[in-house]
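Hi there. Long-time user, first ticket. I'm pasting a complex I've been working with (about 288 residues overall). I'd like to know whether the download I got is complete or cut off, because the file seemed smaller than I expected. Thanks.
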Amino acid sequence: MNLMFPHPDQEPVLVLDDERSWKLLTHTRHARVAFQGDDRLEIFPVNILTEQPVVYFRTAPGSKLTAAEVGLPVVLEADGMLPDQGWSVVARGLARELTDEEDIRRVRRLGLTPWVPTFKDHVVAVEVTEISGRHFAFGPHPER
Amino acid sequence: MNLMFPHPDQEPVLVLDDERSWKLLTHTRHARVAFQGDDRLEIFPVNILTEQPVVYFRTAPGSKLTAAEVGLPVVLEADGMLPDQGWSVVARGLARELTDEEDIRRVRRLGLTPWVPTFKDHVVAVEVTEISGRHFAFGPHPER
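Hi, the file is complete. Here it is re-exported in full:
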């Protein structure tokens, strides 16, 4: 029995409501952002900071930023694995670059740091319009 | 100094060659698969098994499988985080469902298990045609 994520009728997959999905995302610093690039799908790991309903990440100039500049739809995915359970949250929304200096300073003060010590000065905000989450109870696979 | 992943000139990001990227992917069981669905981008966590140049994952019927059935291009992403370093590998290729029973049995014997104890009988193979990897040395961010 999982106390935090009770699965009714021993179902191995529990669909999470928005509140729980946001809670998991808010407590996560590491995610991936995916979007349709010019000629193919792009996916990158990012450090995130969540202020419901917005998720922020920092980036250097490049394809990620290009997506944000034109307001492309992006998908954020975060997950967590333990030996006996796991979860995954997917959040969708439009990405835009933060341009107001006060906004940028505020988000930095909240602790949004990039992975590596380079000059990644651009902050991207994703206004999430849809979130979904799943919790998985691991177990043996019933081979047919 | 990172002995396994030496970064020349203290550069925080090290681009990995194909051999190292395959090695990281091969030692990883947990990844995400992303692809363009009917009307939007889809991304799911998956357990993977890698036999260069193929990556296998299991799935129940649904959008993931639909992608595999029609041979859609998919992107697999895996990453690993430590307090002082991290890595990310992205592999691209076409997905197809394994239909030969002997192939399916072989992959299962190799240890490809799904996350949850449901009847996930479909095995998807991604023939990887492009792989890329990055290693990150974390550190303080030089604020301008």
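A couple of notes from our side: Residues 19-137 of chain B form a domain with the Pnp Oxidase; Chain A fold (CATH 2.30.110.10). The helical segments of chain B are 18-26, 63-69, 101-109.
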